[in-house]
User: What shape does this take?
Amino acid sequence: MSKDILKLTCRGLRDSIAKGETKSSDAVSAVFAQIEEHDAKIGAFISTFKEEALKKAKEIDEKISKGKPVGSLAGVPIAVKDNMCTTFGTTTCASKILENFRSPYNATVIEKLLAADAVIIGKTNLDEFAMGSSTENSGLKKTVNPRDPSRVPGGSSGGSAAAVAAKMCFAALGSDTGGSIRQPASFCGVAGLKPTYGRVSRYGLVAYGSSLDQIGPLAQNVADCALLLNVIAGHDEKDSTSIDEKTAPIVNWLEKIDQPAAGLKIAVVPQLFEGADSEVVNAIKGAIEVYKRNGAEVIEIKMPHFEYAIAAYYLIATAEASSNLARYDGVHYGYRTKNPADYVEVYSKSRNEAFGQEVKRRIMLGTYALSSGYYDAYYLKALKVRNLIRGDFTAAFERADCIIMPTSPTTAFKIGEKTADPLQMYLSDVYTIAVNLAGVPAISIPCGFDKNNLPIGLQIIASTFQEEKLLRIARMFEREIK
Amino acid sequence: MADIEHNIVIGLEIHVQLCTKTKMFCGCELIFAAEPNSRVCPVCLGLPGALPVMNKQAVEFAMLTACALNCKIAEFTKWDRKSYYYPDLPKNYQISQYDLPIGSNGFIGIPLADGKTKRIRIRRVHLEEDAGKNIHSEGNFSKVDLNRAGTPLLEIVTEPDINSAEEVRLLAIELQRIVRFLGVSEADMQKGHMRFEPNVNLHIRKDNNEYKTPITEIKNLNSFKALEKSVAFEVRRQLDEFLESGRVMQSGNKKTFGWDDIREVTVLQREKEEAHDYRYFPDPDLVPVVVNEKRLNEIKAELCELPLKMQSRFVSDYGLSDYDASVLTADRATAEFFDDAVKAGGDAKKLCNLITQTGLKIANEKNCKVSKLGISPGQLAVLAQMVEQGMISATASVTVFEKMTQSNDSPQQIAESLNLLQKSDEGELEKIVDEVIAVNSQAVEDAKSGDKKSKKAHGFLMGQVMQKTKGTANPQVVAKILNSKLGKGI
Amino acid sequence: MEQRKNMGQKKIDIEQVKQVAKLARLALSEAEIAQFATQLSAILEYVEKLNRLDTADVEPLAHCLPINNCLREDRMKPSLGTEKTLANAPQKDEQFFLVPKILEEPGGF
Assistant: This one.
């Protein structure tokens, strides 16, 4: 019975619970059975809350049986990336420096999930402070790809993607700064949406690259992503960078999701295919054919500044990160080194002992890019190139409704394959990173498998605040291949 | 002995704590002497995931002040992160403003002792957040209190246009007066609402050559007196040092000295060998502030008449002395109270005396402003007129004033009920004088004599008249009558 | 000898790495410093490609958002209270965060 529950989608479960046909308690028990059976191998969760989850599930079940009103996600087990603050459990960011940190406040998205009566079952693993593309940089544990345990789940939201793929939750929240929702979604064969910058509140999301970070859903399909977006999106007065609802009205993103986009115009950037594996290219091209068969017009465009996105990103994101992570100093919270000789050592030893290598590397790079004498050449230059990159997207969206390209140049790579050379790891972000620099929304959905049965991700990108169109376009393809 | 002249060159950096209700980026209450760490939230604690949201009142106070300092207001202004590590700075960066401050290129006029006004140019005015407090206890640990972290601070930087220790003090006092007038800060130095850091050096002419001594920054000044004394001390010290070592200003040899208030000396704290690399960059968590012309005009319209202007007006229009005008304009409520009373018909000089000699004393005792004593400007004007017309003596007016703070009765009613109304009618008083003269022939003779007994005799006769009138005779009128009848006794 | 080969000339040398580590408050080991010198040089070499673009007339884009003037009313909100504020502190007493004695001025090290 519990396995049948796991076949339901997030929306399906939500509807079934609301109708009283399924008990939330059974759904929660089912996912915990999965966790107990599989997570020792997969390692998706840093912490879980079985007792509290079952208690909440029971409360929801009682409310529903009494006909009382409940929220739009009532009783649905959801996982949350461990860089979002919760008053329950710890918020570690997969770092030794916050290993025992208990937040006194909930992130806004957590408050929204709770208000929607979702059941938050656990916090998932990530690359430390969301810095990475494989979850191998986690300072606390290892996560593997549920499809092939010798391979990475992707990153930095690897834990969330693996949890959804292995049915250890019905949907999860991740965060995306350079591709960290979309790439693991593509590696694990699930859907992952990065909303427009400003669409979802960042209050309570532990900052990495503040002008790039966005929270978004990972789920089994497009409709589930829309359902989650309905819950988490919206202006937050506690976040100065969250968009007001006059500029970007809130829509029910589920409502018209099955309505195809008529007269769809898709832009494709042929030069980008050169960097991808042939199987990936074929899958993407196949997807484009599916759209064509359904009446879409496909145009070829150039995005001349696209190839500079990685360079610009690794200056801007690291500069912001070096500043955002300055607060981890062993003084007011977090790890403090044992026996510091003086207060100077409290800072430099605590940080050096508790930060992992990738985090240190990015802090160093970012500090350098902002330092006196180098600011203009690096940070400022990168901000100017960012403007040019955004210009490429603006020009593209004047001619098309969306841009289609691979999510990643490869399928899930082997554990340890790219860890020797940091630059190699960075270069694998080639298709996702420009999107964050421009602030536009993008989604990755499964579009096939390679010869090793590893999932391939199709990335669809739309213009600012056009999530509605984006989701409908994604749904069009998903419907065709199912 | 070599021919030496020197000019003193001083620039001042001032931090003013704004009196908003809440902190700059969060809703924590701003309150003096709260329990340590009791006014702290995720934002000002710098917890992971916390985000700043700018306080509208702080921005408006900053713009108002920049306007009052005749600055150009930036149409587009933004917030920058200034990075450095210190335990009272939880994020290890301070949100401040770097290249686009709210105000720039302004000036302030300071009233000098000789009555002239000196103009000091203001380089910039910007907003930033304050850090918490480190308390250095005995033992091996320092304690950190974050209640103050996130308090809105206005930083004002002058050009080095100040040329003496006294001018520095006058500038500080004038700035305090201005921000209090505007209502943007309580500016109480004891509570740390205003902090001053003078930058001092000397331009020396020796043997027809020009030398500049290294610049010194002075910290730890807790009063205007300390400000003046420390600058004076520094000037002497720099001159001595130059005469001894000939050391001149070079890039990188600016020093920081702390003022020791007990020993009254400056103490070297740190040689600023290398400038700090603050790595300023635009804060990605905050959006810029854009001020259009309409809004700017609205802000300018909110500007009250500034204290120096009001002080000058009191001197030129009301004939007050510079000193008296400065006392009345020490704070806005008192200045406006006085101004309103004059406009209600009171004699300016009499009102000035009433307020400065009596009103301020009573207000001080009651720990409130003169305007809040329960006397309206109109009523005070009436009282002043009563004194001006001789209806009551100046002494009596003090009593009436005090009573007015306790009751709603008019000054006339109070004076009447206390029998303080003076007789000033010459005819009536002349009759009484005649009666007194008639029965005091010896005193009259002494008074007329013009020798040293005369003055005493006049006084005696005056006393007799006062006795007969039960103290209600107007002494000036009586003296006039006596003098005309007996000749001046003095 | 081919001195013009990039291999010999690092974009960032050991001394610079040490300076940056000091700014970033990271007590790196000698081995880490050496490794970062190599890795950061490679990354900085890569980002050089940005210089191929002429950006003389391009504005820097710090924000993707089309908004300004996000301001809040000066209204009080509840604070955490001393206990919650100190809850995660590595060292504290009943009222304060505790650090080893501070001897110098801010940023003095």
Notes: The mean pLDDT of chain A is 97. The interface with chain B takes residues 84-85, 91, 93, 98, 101, 103-105, 107, 202-207, 209-211, 237-241, 319-320, 323, 326-327, 329, 331-333, 343, 347, 367, 370-372, 375, 379 of chain A (CB under 8 Å). Chain A is about 40% helix and 10% strand.
